[in-house]
Specification:
Length: 687
């Protein structure tokens, strides 16, 4: 008998052979679906390699369970497991089509009522080719029924079964190690479910998500309404009255929040080779109608951008590890800025971002926050050369946003998330209009270039606002979300900042990011108050004249004379106008001298500050981990129900582009677009 023939015999006549066939079909099937139905963005040979191989370990482990059974049962159980895996694939294809994200247990749990009206639209969005996810099941079934595969009833040695499972786990471990190597923090930072699937596989994702969900619901089950009561008491005790001088000065104005990606304070006024890096922002920073803070700190943890967003929208901290928006954004109840503004002052609320909607779980979390509109990448044309790093280049993003901004009913609360100034600060030649710095540190030297690019994009947007008149009735808020150059680049940082050295205390100092409120007629100043991202919401609410008494917010109005000025960092470090704590060591803020031998009084002071910081952080954590805001029902606030929000493209465009939005800029401009008033020098858009 020839070798091939005996191999074929082995495949079709033995149990192990059957297992091999199912596993191979399952593998190829899953890989095919990865490539055709999801947008996983595997770039580079490592990611492509992992994407190709990642269905194998899970398939082996799960299908292998069937091998433990005897006789015919074993075959059927393997087939049923394959069917379940295919079903999971199928369900994800449908969900992904609508939401560019994978199903999660918290979505499934709430889907009876909700959320995404999946049930309703399931038929509408299914394509014939989606059923290809069942092809391995169908092929096996045919092979069995036609008796091409003959059932082998002999039991397998238990040792062989166990070996297969051990091998599967080993492969899984190997896969994980390689993935972590390519993308550190893959599991701890939870940026995007797409990443988990791309690196580890769709079934590993299910396990991961299940684990996270179980962890969260255990913590939630333990929490009760009394936990919230004690936190309310704490907040009441620490409440500071907002500054009456600024109360309501921006009442009824549009609020345009510009998220300056990775933008550090030192860029303001910074010159490279005699050229200002951010001339437009510098002008805004110093304008007479800008309140600009120069001691404002980012307070993010691993969740980076998403932590900044969590703080700005909710005045709650991110978590010690991972991203609160990813882990709790779908299932938790919030009392967020968009909901407050909508309910108290009839604002239309929206976010626009030139990146994928699933990143940081935005497409779920924003519903929980109460954003009416979310326009991520799929709302924008994305031609070759438009996209870099994590999203559309800022100039292209702004250019294409105009047609949506002008349609928003006013007053609006709109956040625009820029992304070009993001590590690794890459920019194509034709967009480089300032030279790189020369520290020799590759990850640092492009920073001024992308920051310069972002600044130019902002310049165009401002011109458009002035031209169209939107400028007159809008409060524009700029903020940097977190550092751009991490503390690991001591030498380069010292060089950029023209210092001899750069130590841990300098690193804390360079966590300063801009916070600017700019509005025509605003009584401006450079404000030296120490503040952080947690404080933005109370400050903004006061400017808009919205009473925030009784809200569950950990920040304080930065314009208040009584602002406590103790700025927590997510790891328990802090800075005040007098003292700072950096990795367990204390410093004098003004001189940067380390406090070596504090006397008793000073020691007590430092301890007390330290305790205040950990108290804040842990109380905020309790709210998020225990989902405590589900117990919060003040008379003036209606809890947000994510199911009331539909981010489906059709519905979004129907509402947004409706001719009935009589308060929109477009309507006021005699129902004509203002797109031609937006001038851009983006080389990609040159006619
Ligand atoms: C992507 C962007 C980046 O959408 O917001 O997030 P980051 O890496 O800065 O946390
Ligand atoms: Mn960011």
């Amino acid at each position: 008998m020839s070798r091939t023939k005996s191999f074929l015999q082995w495949l079709t006549r033995t149990k192990l052979g059957f297992f091999t066939i199912v596993l191979t079909l399952f593998w190829l099937n899953t890989y095919f679906i990865y490539l055709t139905k999801f947008n996983l963005g595997a770039v580079g040979s490592m990611q492509q390699f992992l994407l190709l191989l990642n269905p194998i370990p899970a398939g082996m482990l799960l299908l292998g369970i069937g091998l433990f059974f005897k006789g015919r049962k074993s075959y059927w159980i393997i087939l049923i497991i394959d069917l379940l895996l295919s079903l999971w694939l199928f369900a994800n294809i449908l969900y992904y089509r609508e939401f560019s994200n994978f199903l999660s247990f918290s979505i499934i749990k709430t889907s009876g009522s909700t959320s995404d009206n999946l049930g309703k639209s399931i038929v509408g969005i299914t394509k014939i080719s989606d059923f290809l996810s069942f092809s391995s099941v169908v092929i096996i079934l045919i092979l069995l029924l036609t008796k091409i595969i003959k059932i082998d009833v002999r039991p397998l040695k238990i040792k062989v079964n166990a070996l297969i499972e051990v091998l599967a786990l080993t492969l899984m471990g190997l896969n994980l190690t390689m993935a972590q190597h390519d993308r550190s923090g893959l599991l701890t930072r939870t940026f995007d479910n797409n990443y988990i699937v791309k690196y580890l596989g769709i079934n590993e994702y299910a396990v991961y998500d299940g684990f996270k969900t179980a962890q969260a619901s255990a913590q939630m089950a333990k929490a009760n309404v009394n936990d919230l009561r004690s936190i309310k008491k704490y907040l009441k005790l620490n409440y500071v009255k907002p500054n009456p001088e600024y109360q309501g000065v921006a009442k009824g104005k549009n609020v345009l929040v510009i998220h300056l990606e990775s933008f550090q304070q030192f860029l303001i006024g910074y010159k490279w080779k005699g050229k200002e890096v951010t001339p437009n922002l510098n002008k805004i920073y110093h304008a007479k109608d800008s309140i600009s803070f120069d001691n404002f700190f980012n307070q993010v943890g691993q969740g980076k951008t998403s932590d900044a967003e969590m703080m700005l929208e909710n005045s709650l901290f991110g978590l010690q590890s991972g991203s609160a928006m990813s882990s709790y954004g779908t299932s938790n109840t919030f009392e967020s800025a968009p909901a407050i503004l909508h309910q108290k002052a009839d604002y239309t609320t929206a976010v626009m971002h030139g990146g994928e909607g699933s990143f940081w779980n935005r497409n779920n979390a924003y519903k929980s926050f109460g954003f009416q509109y979310f326009l991520p990448l799929n709302y924008f044309k994305n031609k070759p050369g438009y996209y870099i790093g994590y999203g559309l280049k800022d100039k292209i993003f702004f250019d294409q946003s105009i047609k949506y901004i002008e349609r928003l009913p006013q007053p609006f609360y709109l956040k625009m998330i820029t992304v070009t100034n993001h590590y690794p600060y890459d920019l194509d030649k034709k967009n480089q209009t300032i030279s790189k710095t020369d520290t020799g540190d590759e990850t640092v030297d492009g920073y001024v270039q992308t920051a310069h690019y972002l600044d130019q994009a902002i310049g165009s947007l401002m011109k458009w606002m002035k031209k169209t008149g939107l400028y007159k009735n809008t409060l524009i808020m700029f903020y940097g979300d977190h550092y751009g150059i991490s503390g690991n680049h001591h030498k380069a940082c010292a060089q950029l900042l023209k210092q001899d050295t750069f130590n841990d205390f300098d690193n804390l100092n360079s966590q300063r990011v801009p916070l600017i409120f700019h509005m025509k007629g605003l009584k401006g100043k450079i404000d030296h108050t120490y503040g952080g991202e947690i404080d933005v919401l109370p400050t903004l609410l006061n400017l808009l004249g919205i009473n925030d008494k009784g809200t569950i917010q950990f920040g304080h109005d930065l314009l208040s004379k009584d602002a406590p000025q103790i700025i927590a960092q997510r790891n328990g470090d802090f800075i005040t106008p007098e003292y700072a704590k950096v990795s367990g060591d204390y410093y004098y803020t003004k001189t940067g001298k380390e406090i070596i031998d504090p006397d008793k009084k000073l020691k007590e002071k430092l301890m007390s500050l330290s305790n205040q910081v950990t108290t804040q952080l842990s109380l905020s954590d309790r709210i998020i981990n225990g989902n405590l805001l589900r117990f919060y029902k003040p008379s003036w606030f209606k809890s947000v129900k994510p199911k009331d929000y539909n981010y489906g493209e059709q519905e979004t465009l129907d509402n947004l582009m409706s001719k009935d939005n009589k308060t929109s800029l477009w309507y006021k401009n005699h129902q004509r677009t203002t797109q031609k008033d937006f001038k851009t020098d983006a080389p990609e858009l040159k006619k």
